[in-house]
Amino acid sequence: MVTSSKTCRKGLKVDSPAKQAKSQQVKHLGIVKRDGYLAPFEDAIRGRHEHAQWKYSQYTDNGKSTLSDFANGHEYYGLHKLEKGWVFREWAPNATDIYLIGDFNKWKESPKYRCKRIKGTGNWELKLSENSINHGDLYKMHVYWEGGEGERIPAWTRRVVQDEETKIFSAQVWNPEQPYKWKKKSFVPKTNPLFIYECHIGMSQDAEKVGTYDEFRLNVLPRIIKDGYNCIQIMAIQEHPYYGSFGYHVSSFFASSSRFGTPEQLKLLIDEAHQHGVAVIMDIVHSHAVKNEVEGLGNLAGDPNQYFYPGERHEHPAWDSLCFDYGKDEVVHFLLSNCKYWLTEFHFDGFRFDGVTSMLYYSHGLGEAFTNYGDYFNGHQDDNAICYLTLANILIHEVNKHAITIAEEVSGMPGLAAKFADGGYGFDYRMAMNIPDYWIKTIKELRDEDWKPSSILWEVTNRRSDEKTISYCESHDQALVGDKTIIFRLVDADMYWHFKKGDENMCAQRGIALHKMIRLVTASTINGGYLNFMGNEFGHPEWIDFPREGNGWSHKYARRQWNLVDNKELDYHYLGDFDHDMLSVLKSEKNINKTAVQEIWHNDGDQILAYMRGDLVFVFNFSPSRSYSDYGFLVPEGAYEVMLNTDSKLYGGNGLADDTITHFTNSDKLYAKDHKGWLMLYIPARSAVVLRRKE
Fold first, then answer.
1. Low-confidence ranges of the chain (pLDDT < 50)
2. Which listed residue (227, 283, 382, 408) is catalytic?
3. Burial of 176 (C-beta count, 10 Å sphere; 0-12/13-18/19+)
4. How many other C-beta atoms can be found within 10 angstroms of the C-beta atom of residue 10?
5. What is the DSSP string of 634-679?
6. Helix (H, G, I), strand (E, B) or coil at 162
7. Verdict on whether the full-model pTM lies above 0.70
8. 589 catalytically annotated
9. What is the per-residue DSSP string for 594-620?
10. Any catalytic annotation for residue 504?
């Protein structure tokens, strides 16, 4: 592979095989030290670790360069403006001839626009004079191969647009006279804790249409900032032919989706977020690619396996898509360069990697139970994909040491979010995907009287001690058509008729109360971060259904109705106000994600739960009908003031407790030596309260 620019960043230190062997004799890998149950599988863990070390050494010429140097494919391939003229390059080893066709030559082949194969490689190159092409020109490749030909969009193109009338996609020359000038040139995300607002540009507006980067920046970003989130996770950035795929069937991996606007408008959005202290990460899809041949990589030059696994592993059995061949150096180069491109060109602060489970296993995780550690080391894992993910994390943090990487992974693979030096894969966080599943199961299958606080606390804190997680009650997945959000499961059709102030029935009141409690117990027990999907913070009704033939290509359910939360006559603002104040309280305890979740008390019969984090005490009464007076909790002695109460009238509650009172602990001789006393509280049914110990 040919790459261009160099970087002075220090690379990963790779010991010689002899030194590695000597060190292995005297110490275990870090993740094995911390979890003795992994000891029987240490050889497998070490094998994966050494595989990544070997490939790293290969890609960096035994450490003489860096992985960032290797991941510069985007600076070499594709169309580039030079000081004088243009150059275009494409990796297409199976091609016999390539022409550029477009507006500049009336879409007809001509010798001037014929590429030449670079001798001894699979690369093709075309050099053009200054005026041969212009900013805004549409173009494609016309590729020939043995036994066939076809028009193709270049794999490394940075701009793709769709004709509104013909619906045909084309690459577009993009070279504005004035490149974007960043106002905030450097940015360090706030991660203690990380509060993520998951969003989608196109469906972010009230209007029944596709929203834009500018509309999001002007209309939605201010809401996110005001609410108190410090990170935006944007879906569907990479270009995708079908809007309804939610951005998961990617065709052009280096092109920001033009249906939302220009690259400069996306940069302006990110820049403005940074100016307000908000990080921006993107959903990056490296787990599969769209099948499309004309728009995508499915058959770029007559070889369907150029980028993808051959044989049975070629297609994803559940996603109707193609699976990358992570064992091919050129593919790894393509994907690593893609990571670096989004970091450097757009100043994204990191990535949430989609579909990691699908990458890790030959089965894509389908039909596997993952009930014991043996299921992670039984030979059913794709070591090439594991190696790629490990290298991707090394690269991303080499390019930007403050970058954030999150794995969407459901199997529970040990070490996923552990440091590479300890034998892990290097992600900063993993999604706590067990939590939304637990809430759905609880709401669907259990009576309110059967909710067990011990089970709730176990589930929201059930994680590996050495790996940080992103906790969440629900994401976009639960909002899709065919599923239901938490608020819709709780209230259902009564949201249409009884979500106006003064007109709430028992079902609506129950939903409002539990919506707040579920969010509070999930967000307050994080060890890394908390995620909310756009609109769910205020109980956005209904579901997400993108325009498609089955719904008459309607945008009615592919939007966010901000007017609901802005209408103070409706109950939605209660939930939105609570979300804002909840984040504010959690941020008031410095580095709350790093403090221990210290259980104070639980009683499944009473349905009472209490725990402490730093100086904050969290008390929950999940009983639907029983309120308790003078319920005692043994806590550090002192005075406690109420910081947040889900039952407050400010949040649509009944306001049964006096939150202005300072609560003093009652002394007890038995616990005097421990400096503990009894905190006696009135806890209304179906409510939660947060108190702070005063100095």
1. 1-14, 16-26
2. 408
3. exposed
4. 9
5. EEESSEEEEEEETTSGGGTS---S-TTPEEEPEE-GGGGGGTEEEE
6. strand
7. yes
8. no
9. GS--EEEEEETTTTEEEEEETTEEEEE
10. no
